[in-house]
């Protein structure tokens, strides 16, 4: 009963945030599963397992006084068929913020973010917190967070997906064979591979099993000659 009342209060306190959200629908459509928080078009995208009855998030800049409820997103394949659900919350970057500390509430219990390995113990408050640092404040040697092509004709492909998956890269440069290049998970939910590619425009997708995933870090999309939706990268 206490848990029910807690959830009811949390939902009531944050109800306005459900309808006040202001973000690009494409940001939601590109969510592929539970993974580490990431930046997208001036926002931070948080994800959580959809199995919980209620998941909320509270931030340090609000004194952890407001619990913002996650919403549910149903993921679909290229044919529009449902292939699972994930919870998400999208936060607009607070002005001048360099990092965020936050806590999750999952079914009435306070916890750090299971998808985020960056957590610490706040001795003054006596609680454990999760932390997100904005890319502009990360060391310069940090791995890139978006697919990019260098002047040396090397393309570093970046894929965000569920952790502990086998993710492959395929494209016009592999004749769309999805089993040639397996990507490496360099951090939770972040997969990478670097390939030398000739100058020109290349089409590609990521593959989890036989499911094709467009690149959520690359806004450039196009239809290929055989009608598939693919991400596009141009090598100078």
What does this structure look like?
The chain is mainly β. The chain is 10% helix and 44% strand. The chain contains 3 helices and 20 strands. Strands 3, 4, 7, 8, 9 and 10 form a 6-stranded antiparallel sheet that branches. Strand 5 and strand 6 form a beta hairpin. The longest helix is centred in the first third of the chain and has 12 residues.
Instruction: Please report which band the strand proportion falls in: under 5%, 5-15%, 15-25%, 25-35%, 35-45% or over 45%.
Output: 35-45%
Rg for CA atoms: 19 Å
Order of helices and strands: HHHEEEEEEEEEEEEEEEEEEEE
Shape: globular
Largest sheet: 6 strands, antiparallel
How many angstroms does the end-to-end distance come to?
Answer: 62 Å
User: Low-confidence spans: pLDDT under 50, at least 5 residues?
Assistant: 1-22
Fraction of residues in H or I helices: under 10%
SS-based structural class?
mainly beta
Number of strands: 20
In DSSP terms (H or I, runs of 4 or more residues), the helix count works out at 3
Tell me, rounded to a whole number, the average pLDDT: 84
